[in-house]
Design goal:
The protein has 190 residues and is mainly alpha-helical. It is 84% helix and 0% strand. It has one domain.
Length: 190
């Protein structure tokens, strides 16, 4: 009996270590993304020269910041005046969707820690009822609620492929709107 108890304790410690590592990794990415995003706003001409890889990097990094605003929208809007808006929207959507993995990883790693909070319980109900369509809609709209939904999606262990597919599809819709707006109106602002 004592042997099983010790075995269970060591597994819990290993699981806690994995959770802590994943959480610290996601927070580190978020902080790094915030720092890099401030550099993007200072050197936006460099990213215009980088073209589509620059669009991808900006979208990825600006979406990796949790709850902190990043200037990705403005730079991608500006880049759309010089690049094909269809490709900008697609590339930015994919990069931004991948960037949202930080919130998913935080939820996945700390599922036992957030499972009793009021906001988690609200999002859990919605995600269990609507799943991928809910993530798609939240991804297509410019709002910070997606970070909370991403944490909840990770905490309920929504399959990663479902989260990524819905997030990327929604982000593509959002960035197509931004890219075409930048393409047609960007000349007035740049």
């Amino acid at each position: 009996m004592k042997k099983n108890s010790m075995k269970k304790k060591s597994l819990l410690t290993l699981e806690n270590a994995k959770s802590l590592f994943t959480l610290l990794f996601a927070i580190g990415i978020s902080i790094g993304a915030f720092v890099l995003s401030s550099e993007f706003s200072k050197n936006s001409e460099l990213f215009i020269q980088l073209g589509y890889p620059g669009v991808f990097i900006i979208a990825l990094v600006s979406s990796a910041t949790m709850f902190l605003p990043a200037p990705g929208f403005a730079i991608i809007f500006a880049m759309s005046a010089f690049l094909n808006p269809l490709l900008v929207g697609f590339v930015a959507g994919v990069g931004s969707g991948i960037g949202e993995l930080t919130s998913y990883l935080v939820g996945y790693s700390g599922s036992s820690k957030v499972s009793h909070t009021k906001i988690y319980l609200q999002h859990k109900k919605g995600l269990q009822k609507y799943g991928m369509p809910a993530i798609f809609v939240l991804s297509a709209l410019p709002n910070p609620v997606l970070d909370i939904a991403g944490i909840a999606a990770g905490a309920i262990k929504m399959p990663l492929w479902k989260f990524l597919l819905a997030t990327i599809a929604g982000k593509i819709v959002k960035y197509l709107f931004i890219a075409y707006t930048g393409f047609y109106l960007g000349g007035y602002f740049i």
